[in-house]
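Annotated sample (chain length 98).
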Amino acid sequence: MARAHAVATALKEKLERAETRSERADAALRQAEAEVEDLAAAIVQTRRDLEMLQSQTAAKEAELAASEHRAKDAECRAENADAAIQRIMDAIRTQLPV
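Output written by the structure step:
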């Protein structure tokens, strides 16, 4: 009888330890699941931020291309104006008496 009692006590202690381990494992699982949810939310936000940055980059590239086009147009107009001024000066020189 004493031996059965000792075996029952040992089994009870093993069961309690197993329950404690199970509770710790459940707590660790809940913590891991919470961390996974946080990481998933962070990934979603990072993806949104990346998309926004890509959109802003595309807009800036378009602005830069437009600015470069305006600069080339301005250079062309300046060259044409310089050529026109040179023609006018040449015409004036040909009309002046020497």
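Annotation: The mean pLDDT is 96.
Annotation: The radius of gyration is 42 Å.
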